[in-house]
């Protein structure tokens, strides 16, 4: 065997049990109470948890936006991910107008291939939903990309309700999944114009420009369209109680609607925008009030929120400073790629959710919904050996100094984690150990995904 992990407690979405894990050629080949064979590397995981690596299904690495580019490259982003126990990312390949879907992914593959420290895939973010693109859904499926993102906001990217309807209908025909950024752009635009005219330019007004109802209206509309066309739907970065209520109602009716939320919506409230460094928290959707924060936790526990992902899209301090005098000039996006799994597991250590639930929403559901289960997202014989050894007793205080991304600050500064990953394996290869990155760029592979 290449690797044997002994004496640990294995956690899956449905079970917790003591067993040894044996790994050969990147795959889990044996799980048993006492693995007796020899191993090239033997890890004693007594007192530790043995978890699947997380899959972060929402990241924006090297994303060109607003005259700049998000601060983590494919190398630094995947390095940071590995150090936080994430072993696969699904990034966004943004379609330029006139470009095909597969061509868009192929272009991003050329960028990521030499850099990736962990495995990866893409959703295509569609900006030009013409008939050829709708036709191309099938070719994209054959290429291993069965999920597409539509933005209801952002001038150069946004689609209208007619286009959303077409995409949902086509996704139903092709077994693909439409993911939607749900906010109402017209409400945002008018509110923003009025706020600026009144001289209200601080970071707090970012929240005021896109409060709860801006999301709720869009969620309601897109859920209704999904219902009309009988298509599955994935709502990215859900941030509000009322938005969640819409999802819950639809799920109660039996619709295949999935909601994702992000760690910053679970951990923070809109009070952060009143801070001196409020601009660092500017992302869209905005971070909402305490009532929404609590509701999102309830939604996770109930199962109406299916996944947690980061929307990792950081910008450096000097870029965030562009909006010191005008919140509309702050590049939108926060970091979290190294913090998501430790945070969710820390909340499990503290009893907010079970460890099984943390694995379900960070790993197993993600793999199932996006079509890479059971290769990814669980600890099982035949699955990739993407494994995290987790010490539930280790205390860890987050600081930009102990993070591994290329950003000069973190919105997670001083956050105390109860428990922390001590080792991450990507297909059996050690990529992180006790504070240090051990992997290398170019190791990560493209994971083809299939939803049917
Ligand atoms: N929201 C952000 O804050 N950043 C990137 C894209 C998005 O939708
Ligand atoms: Zn978004
Ligand atoms: Zn995003």
Radius of gyration: 21 Å
- Stretches where pLDDT is under 50 for at least 5 consecutive residues are none
| Number of DSSP strand runs | 19
Oligomeric description of these chains: single chain
Main sheet: strands, sense, barrel: 9 strands, mixed
CATH topology of the largest domain: TIM Barrel
| Helical amount | 25-40%
Overall number of structural domains? 2
Total count of helical runs of at least 4 residues: 14
Structural class: alpha/beta
Fold and architecture overview:
The chain is built from 14 helices and 19 strands. The protein folds into two domains: 80 residues, Urease, subunit C, domain 1 (Roll), CATH 2.30.40; 317 residues, TIM Barrel (Alpha-Beta Barrel). It is of the alpha/beta class. It binds dihydropyrimidine-2,4(1H,3H)-dione (DUC) and zinc ion (2 copies).
């Amino acid at each position: 065997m290449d690797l044997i992990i002994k004496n640990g407690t294995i956690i899956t979405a449905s079970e917790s049990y003591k067993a040894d894990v044996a790994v050969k050629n990147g795959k889990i080949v044996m799980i048993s109470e006492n693995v007796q064979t020899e191993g090239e590397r033997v890890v004693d995981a007594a007192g530790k948890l043995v978890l699947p690596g997380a899959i972060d299904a929402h990241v924006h690495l090297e994303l060109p936006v607003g005259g700049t580019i998000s601060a983590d490259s494919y190398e630094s982003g995947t390095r940071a991910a590995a150090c936080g126990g994430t072993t696969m990312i699904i990034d966004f390949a943004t379609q330029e107008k006139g470009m095909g879907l597969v061509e868009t992914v192929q272009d991003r593959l050329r960028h990521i291939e030499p850099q990736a420290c962990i495995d990866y895939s893409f959703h295509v973010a569609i900006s030009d939903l013409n008939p050829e693109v709708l036709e191309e859904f099938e070719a994209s499926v054959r290429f291993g990309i069965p999920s597409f993102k539509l933005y209801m906001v952002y001038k150069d990217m946004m689609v209208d309700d007619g286009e959303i309807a077409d995409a949902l209908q086509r996704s139903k025909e092709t077994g693909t999944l439409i993911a939607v950024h749900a906010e109402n752009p017209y409400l945002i635009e008018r509110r923003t114009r009025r706020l600026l005219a009144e001289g209200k330019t601080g970071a707090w007004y970012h929240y005021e420009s896109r409060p709860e109802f801006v999301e709720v209206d869009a969620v309601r509309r897109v859920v209704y369209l999904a219902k009309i066309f009988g298509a599955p739907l994935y709502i990215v970065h859900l941030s509000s109680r009322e938005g969640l209520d819409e999802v819950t109602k639809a799920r109660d009716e039996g619709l295949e609607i999935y909601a994702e939320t992000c760690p910053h919506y679970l951990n923070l409230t809109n009070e952060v925008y009143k801070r001196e460094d409020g601009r660092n928290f500017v992302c869209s959707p905005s971070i909402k009030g305490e009532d929404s924060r609590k509701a999102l936790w309830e939604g996770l526990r109930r199962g109406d929120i299916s996944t947690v992902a980061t929307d990792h899209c950081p910008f450096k301090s000097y870029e965030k400073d562009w909006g010191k005098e005008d919140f509309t000039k702050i590049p939108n996006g926060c970091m979290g790629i190294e913090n998501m799994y430790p945070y969710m597991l820390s909340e499990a250590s503290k009893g907010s959710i079970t460890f099984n639930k943390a694995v379900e929403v960070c790993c197993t559901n993600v793999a199932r919904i996006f079509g890479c289960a059971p290769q990814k997202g669980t600890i099982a014989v035949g699955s990739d050996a993407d494994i995290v050894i987790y010490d539930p007793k280790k205390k860890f205080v987050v600081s930009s100094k102990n993070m591994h991304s290329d950003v000069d600050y973190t919105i997670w500064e001083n956050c105390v984690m109860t428990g922390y990953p001590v080792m991450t394996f990507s297909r059996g290869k050690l990529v992180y150990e006790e504070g240090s990155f051990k992997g290398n760029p170019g190791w990560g592979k493209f994971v083809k995904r299939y939803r049917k």
